[in-house]
Specification:
alpha+beta; homodimer; three-stranded antiparallel beta sheet; Mth169, Chain: A; nucleotide-binding (chains A, B); purine biosynthesis (chains A, B); 77 residues; EC 6.3.5.3 (chains A, B); elongated; Phosphoribosylformylglycinamidine synthase subunit PurS (chains A, B)
Chain lengths: 77, 77
């Protein structure tokens, strides 16, 4: 079974990578972009026995820094 | 309007970051994880006038390296 973990910076945390992407998009002439935030995507291929609680545990212990980051778990098929 | 761009490495491309995460999860005692792939998440806040074609253009020109990466565009609300 596949699961996706989306790790994003919390609101209020500075995101220089997102700012750089935003600036580069403008430099390339793309209009209408108001904001860009960069985050991480971690795709896990786990056994059926692994439940959401276990994945949340992985996020808290390793995948996300919960001081500055939020995470969201999505199951894919 | 918000859009998410999910950038993942193509199959067959080595993913040392994913391997390191996998190894670390095993070291922490998490069982049942078969594979881990690391990717990027880019959240765009764009005007309503920006359509999927424009976002795909951004991906091809800047956000993803299409030689080694796939990208997927998802609209959020």
């Amino acid at each position: 079974m596949k699961a996706r973990v989306l790790v994003t910076l919390k609101n209020g945390v500075l995101d220089p990578q997102g700012k750089a992407i935003h600036h580069a998009l403008e430099g390339l002439g793309f209009a209408g972009v108001n904001d860009v935030r960069a985050g991480k995507l971690i795709e896990l291929d786990v056994d059926e026995s692994v439940d959401d609680g276990a994945i949340e545990d992985m996020c808290r212990k390793l995948l996300a820094n919960t001081v500055i980051e939020n995470f969201r778990i999505e199951r894919v098929a």
